[in-house]
Design a protein that fits this description.
By secondary structure, the chain is of the alpha/beta class. It has a domain of about 170 residues: Alpha/Beta hydrolase fold, catalytic domain (Rossmann fold). Helices cover about 30% and strands about 15% of the residues. It has eight helices and nine strands.
């Protein structure tokens, strides 16, 4: 019930969605939630093959996406390396705890979202040079996948991803959000839905909402406060600069070594990205 706002929205776009409840919702750990992912996918397989099931033949079992909030996000990270049926994932303010090491085992496309007022488990990320390994941005950086996206919702907090009655405790445990729950969920759905269309339905029309001009406009109009994208193939004209990061606010390129040497970008063929005044880090591969 806490996440019907996600399930009903995706179902309205033609996705088959299953939401599960853990036996003990207050259990501190990911084991029950990991079991939930496994049994949920098994259930979809069963119903897809069951003679009288309304889902018979309607589930594309080659395109499974999982998503989780908080401990559910941690359970997603724990589960992905265990099940090759999972092809992509969306993590909503994930609490990773003991499963942080699994980040290096993940090789499917992953989107990580968080509100920049989230202080439930970590401080918000404002300093990209911060070496504090407890920040969500550090979690994102440790993901070994070649395709990933980090989205920080401006004014959002941890609890507004959930519609649980206990989420009202957020005013005591979390920083107060600067936007409404409806607005945070609307922004979250924009990127979650686009991710699902792009990676599950192979719909290239959603590229702009994730990696192109439209998402940059969202950064400019400040619905998101930070964006980081890593995808393996872009039409970049970078000469011999090789792999690195592009900070489009300063129009500077920096490599990945400890010295962080920089060079000015003279040619970058990614459309209107250079018009941004926000904070984007764009990692690429030649």
């Amino acid at each position: 019930m806490d996440y019907r706002w996600i399930g009903e929205h995706l179902a309205s776009h033609g996705f088959v969605v299953i939401l599960y409840s853990v036996p003990n919702r207050f259990a501190w750990g990911v084991s029950e939630r990991v079991d939930g992912f496994k049994e949920a996918i098994n259930y979809l397989e069963l119903k897809n093959n069951q003679k009288w099931s309304p889902l018979k033949g309607k589930v594309d079992l080659s395109k499974i996406e999982i998503s989780g909030h908080s401990l559910g996000g941690g359970a997603s990270v724990a589960y992905i390396p265990l099940d090759s049926r999972v092809k992509t994932a969306v993590l909503l303010a994930p609490y990773l705890g003991s499963v942080e090491g699994n980040l290096t085992l993940i090789n499917i496309p992953v989107q990580l979202q968080i509100g920049d007022m989230d202080s439930m488990f970590y401080k918000n990320e404002t300093d990209l040079s911060d070496d504090n390994d407890s920040t969500p941005y550090d979690y994102y950086k440790n993901l070994s996948t070649q395709t990933k996206e980090y989205i920080q919702i401006k004014g959002g907090n941890h609890f507004q991803y959930s519609e649980s009655p206990i989420s009202t405790l957020g005013s005591f445990l979390d920083c107060k959000a600067n936007i409404s729950q409806e607005m945070q969920q609307r922004i979250a759905l924009r990127y979650l839905t686009s991710w699902s269309y792009y990676f599950l339905k192979n719909d290239s029309n959603y590229y702009t909402y994730l990696f192109g001009e439209t998402v940059v406009k969202n950064l400019n109009n400040q619905s998101i406060s930070m964006l980081d994208i890593k995808i393996p193939s872009l039409n970049l004209s970078m000469g011999s600069l090789g792999k690195g990061c592009v900070n489009l606010m300063s129009n500077m390129w920096s490599d990945d070594d400890e010295n962080k040497t920089s060079a000015t970008i003279t040619s970058l063929d990614i459309g209107n990205f250079l018009r941004t005044t926000g904070n984007i880090i764009f990692e690429f591969f030649n």
